[in-house]
Amino acid sequence: MAPPPTADRSDADGGSDSPGITRITAVFGAAATVLSLGGIALGVLLDPTFSWTTDALSDLGVRDGSAPAFNWGLIGGGAAGVLYAADLGRGGRSLRAALLALAMIAMAGVGVFDLTEPLHGPAAIGFYGLITLVFAVDGWTRRGEATGRVALAFAPVHVAVWATFVAGWWPVTGLALPELPGALMLAAWVWVVGPAPVSGAARSRAGESGGSSEPDDPSGSSGSGDPTDGH
């Protein structure tokens, strides 16, 4: 019997995604977002001079108090993100996985190369450009799903954020606020609207745990004992 039409679509990154997400994929995705956003948040707390209106987020990476938290948060988040992307690719999403892996490498590069380094700018631009492509490719691939359409909408929204900032429509001079929406949209994509959402794995895990405990079979072994025993 010939395989169904969708069986070969994964190599071209088209059609429906492979179902499910492994526990390790969810762990890597959660770690990528928690480490990177957590490093930013901690850096802001550790730098009393930081300004959301006049600074860039990358200023946190060159100041004594905040640099370790900010830079290592991005490096650790980027490393976890590459592993998340690799596991995503094994689910038949090769193009999106490759784009995401490159974005995560670029994000780690922002931490490795601080503002004083020549490669800092290319790494930052690469990160924001690549996550926009991730949103666009993933959203278009899954445009038949509600979460896919949300992911697809992230792409023009992210472009609009930077276009309006460059046009001078933002009442700020620093890059920190325009940088934030892309980071938050990426976190939302990993946790909720992407093809392998961390929240979906958490719900699945909770469901398995809840279904594993049978009130009339505390040992957890089915078929053992007489159901008329009343144990």
Question: What features would you describe in this structure?
Answer:
With 231 residues, the protein is mainly alpha-helical. The chain has helices at residues 23-46, 67-90, 94-112, 120-141, 146-166, 176-193, 198-212. Helix 1 runs antiparallel to helix 6 and helix 2 runs antiparallel to helix 3. The longest helix has 24 residues, at 23-46. Residues 1-12 and 212-231 have low confidence and may be disordered.
Record keyword descriptors for this entry.
231 residues; mainly alpha; 62% helix; disordered N terminus
What is shown here, in short?
With 231 residues, the protein is mostly helical. The protein is built from seven helices and no strands.
Q: How many alpha or pi helices? A: 7
Summarize model confidence as the mean pLDDT: 85
Sheet/helix structural class: mainly alpha
Could you describe the largest sheet, including whether it forms a barrel?
none
| Molecular shape | globular
- Helical fraction: 55-70%
